[in-house]
Amino acid sequence: MIARRCRDVNKSEAIETSSLTKHFGSLTAIESIDFTVQQGEVFGLLGPNGAGKSTIIDLLLGLTSPSEGRVLVFGTNVAVDPRAVRRRIGVVPENYGVYDDMSGRENLQAILRLKDTTDDPERLLEAVGLDGEAFDRPAGSYSKGMVQRLVLAAALAGDPDLLILDEPTSGLDPEGIALVRELVRERADDGTTVFFSSHRLDEVEAVCDRIGIVNDGRLLTVTDVDELADRNDDVKRIRLFTEESPDDDLLDRLQSRDSVARIRADEQTLAVDCKTSSAKADVVELVNQCCSVRDFEVDEATLEDMFDATVERDRSQSRANDSVARFAEGNTE
Fold first, then answer.
1. pLDDT band at residue 255, thresholds of 50, 70 and 90?
2. Does 208 fall in a domain?
3. 306 lies in a domain?
4. Close Cβ partners of 218 (under 8 Å, ≥ 6 residues apart)
5. What's the pTM value of the predicted model, to 2 decimals?
6. Quick one: 224 and 279 in the same domain?
């Protein structure tokens, strides 16, 4: 894991949300979202599909207005003056498009005119690693990765104070992914704030200072990436390779143990997250009784495990709250 930069706590806030809520009719897309992002920080937003990430980004951009609460970008209320905010933002949206009949250069020049900036297209071309010859070809002939680079170049036009990147590495090859990571860190080191939404946990771990996890429209936690992993530093995953596939009875017996946090079964491989070191030996013994352990290995829980566990805890709590509510309603009838 890379070393995180020490943030200056005296820096002003680039983004501040307060009780941010958005209703679409009877549907609540997000509810009471509160977080801040400091200038020069790389902040990652994580969550399953439908969690509310896109709604939060739309509110940051002023593409929709909050039902309740507010969002400030560099101290400006986005709902009151969205144009002033957008002038300071560069965006890589999740669903983007380019003019297929225009060259990459012409696409970029059109963006520069819209942004009213005299930025150098060649500088932007070099920044995103787009091939010079391809820059003058029709964008309709580009691969998905090349289009993604072109859109990223457009986002960088005018040296925005805030970059909002929604799945910015989608379609890129490993070289392109590495370039985006380097570009994000360089911009942040120069003082640009980056709001980074991605389903790729390795991307977040590589570039973000802090992350916020959303699920079902609620913000579950905001924490340093390193601290999220440290919360479960004692959790160890033991991976067992068995002669036979584990049956449901074995899985139930494992899950009933207080020392077992999580189980994943895939044919003749069983992954078990243990809360204590002593639990590992118990797990091996129990599994061996049922389906003969051929081999096993122990590794650290990953950021993905921490993310999954956070979301699962929220879902479990929501189910418990629903059960209490139904019980209460039944007693009032």
1. confident
2. yes
3. no
4. 30, 31, 32, 33, 52, 314
5. 0.70
6. no
